[in-house]
Amino acid sequence: MSDQPNANRRKFLRQASAAVAAIPVVSMVGISSAKADTKAEDGHAHNYVNNAADADHADYSEGEKCKNCAFWGGGDAEWGQCFHADFQGVQVNAEGWCDEYVGA
Ligand code: SF4
Q: Which of 14, 53, 91, 104 would staple 79 via disulfide (CB 3.0–4.6 Å)?
């Protein structure tokens, strides 16, 4: 018997919890924070990479990128804000990815 359904369910529940937990952060940070100037580097947190094509992680699925993640806070065509707590103070690449990705 496969553990895949349980693993998928655990991933979904973990990500849904993170997304719900981010709502108050989004409402506070989105209003008050200045735009971070520092750009995240590969490995910043949660297996982050600036180019999703470089993601070497079992949770990654093609097409997942920061710019279509529920944590994406907007920015320019290349860099923007991530509302996940572990990416505060840095900009993430619109084409980036980390294992906290939540489909928007
Ligand atoms: S949580 Fe989403 S927007 Fe933030 S770094 Fe991860 S994939 Fe990108």
A: 91
For residue 85, what are the contacts with CB-CB under 8 A and spacing of at least 6?
22, 25
Give the mutation target among 20, 38, 68, 72 for probing the ligand 1 site: most ligand atoms within 8 A of CB: 72
Pull the structure tokens for residue 58. 């079992």
Q: In the chain, how many domains are there?
A: 1
- Answer yes or no: are the C-beta atoms of 70 and 19 closer than 8 Å: yes
**Cα–Cα dist 85/2, whole Å:** 33
Q: Which domain does 45 fall in, by range?
A: 4-93
Position 103 in a domain: no
CA 49 to chain CA centroid, nearest Å: 10
Q: Which residue has the tokens 């735009």?
A: 35
What's the pLDDT at 59?
A: 97
Residue 101 lies in a domain: no
